[in-house]
Amino acid sequence: MTIHDATTPATRIRFPTSPWLLAGFVVGAIIAVYVQLTIIPLDTKVFGLFENQVDLRVYRQGALHLMDGQPLYEAPMLRNGLLYTYTPFSAIVFLPFAWLDVPPAELLWTALIFAALFYVIVASFRSLRYRVDWRLLIVSASLVCGSSLLEPVRTTIWYGQINVFLMAIVMWDLLRPDGSRLKGIGVGIAAGVKLTPGFFIIYLAITRRRQAVVVAVGTIVATMVIGFLATPGQSWKYWTDRVINSDRVGPTDAPSNQSITGALAATFRTADPNQVLWAVLVIVAMALGMSAACVAHRHGQELLALCLTGMTATTVSPFSWGHHWVWFVPLLVYLVHLPIAAWRAGRTRLLAVTLLLPAALYATVFVWRFHLPEGAMGFKPFYATGMFMRPFPDWLEWFSSEPYLWVFGVTATATLILWGPAEFRRSRTPKPAPRLDRSPLADPAPVGPRR
Predict the structure, then answer these.
(1) How far are the Cα atoms of 2, 118, 374, 425 from residue 299, in angstroms, in the given order?
(2) Backbone CA torsion sign across 185, 191, 201, 166
(3) pLDDT tens sequence across 331-371
(4) Residue 319: which of 235, 385, 263 has the closest Cα?
(5) CA–CA separation, 139 vs 146, rounded Å?
């Protein structure tokens, strides 16, 4: 098994120092900020970037209910009917924001989202063996601005959602060396707040990191115990009933349900997709995504493996809002890295191809504003974001209705095509001495032209 130790200084490479390249990132960031300010004006009631924060308000209300001894799951948290869907332990985590008034809580939460995005991007580059210097910090800050125009990220900021934080915790945990005794604790904490990150335990299991599995499971159990100690009745209700009640999250046939259930609902025009067909497709998606993640892990592409695992989890989840797909952010970093790796290795033929990959991802998951000046759903004007919320020609609906599933499928398939044959040959021959993988899009050794 070839694993690059991201903490080894000898393997660090510098981000290219070309002033034109760095200037390009900065100019791109300025353009992204301008587009963000104009695509939906910030002062637009409800739909402005900082004019909603409804999910954060639900989190606060859950914490307030916990403080006051009120039930978490019997009634809506707000007048708009939104329910509390997270674990009892999560209400404890949200307590500091309940202690603040709404405006400072929203300001702090939003600032922390941007800080978490910056951390995720820097950690992604660091896992790819880049030195954390002023060049990388400039590029990372620029990508934070650029990533704010990805629908999952903008919607996260707009709703005041938590998924960026959970992703940051998982990445902090799983990008550490395997020798860490507490590896798995971040996965356990994230899953203790929201169940979806628990999917990474499957990834740890199939990559044979048993100690991390034990730590992750033990941490989840600890969060459950804490929840029971804080609110026994609500914990019992959640773990025996609410945990399997996915219709509390949203209607299955919502356009923003970017999961297999959403795809089936859109394809067959039904709010109740066939459960047998859903189960079959879930098994296929898990086999595709997790085998690709395992292959990526074995070839030293740990960041790609984590992205694949995160996307697999959102694909097979009973309901996945667009903002659940924040794993596109580290995937974008990985795709930005590929042309740099190709250039450093002198693989000029691949350079043009790899330059198209981040652009293709960005175009697919861009905010793609849909504006109805006459209004809709009780709002005038009405704004929606995401390719799946816009009307497209019928001949493109196969892609536009579920674009995020296509990103997952293409990424997983490409990973298996690139490294799968080598993995198959390795399994049928005596195990060779460890070496650096030399497949076209692998993380190359720092050779070739550099500045």
Answers:
(1) 6, 26, 53, 13
(2) negative
(3) 999 999 999 999 888 888 888 889 999 999 999 999 999 99
(4) 263
(5) 10
Instruction: Convert 335-390 into a string of H (helix), E (strand) and C (coil).
Output: HHHHHHHHHHCCCHHHHHHHHHHHHHHHHHCECCCEEECCCECCECCEEECCHHHC
**pTM of the model as a whole:** 0.91
The whole-angstrom separation of Cα 200 and Cα 191 is 9
State the Cα–Cα distance between residues 308 and 147, nearest whole angstrom: 18
**What is the predicted pLDDT for the residue at 148?**
97
- For every residue of 128-139, DSSP letters joined together read TTB--SHHHHHH
356 CB burial (10 A radius; 0-12, 13-18, 19+): exposed
Residues 188, 225: contact at Cβ < 8 Å?
Answer: no
Which tokens sit at 127? Answer: 């896992």
- Tokens 């790819």 label which residue? 128
* Residue 150 main-chain phi, psi, to 5 deg: -80, 135
Write out 176-229 in H/E/C secondary structure.
CCCCCCCCCHHHHHHHHHCCHHHHHHHHHHHCCCHHHHHHHHHHHHHHHHHHHH
Handedness of CA 96, 82, 259, 364 (dihedral sign): negative
pLDDT-flagged residues of the chain (< 50)? 1-7, 433-451
Q: Would you call 13 helix, strand, or coil by DSSP? A: strand
Per-residue pLDDT at 4: 39
Q: Which residues on neighbouring strands pair with residue 384, listed in sequence order?
A: 370
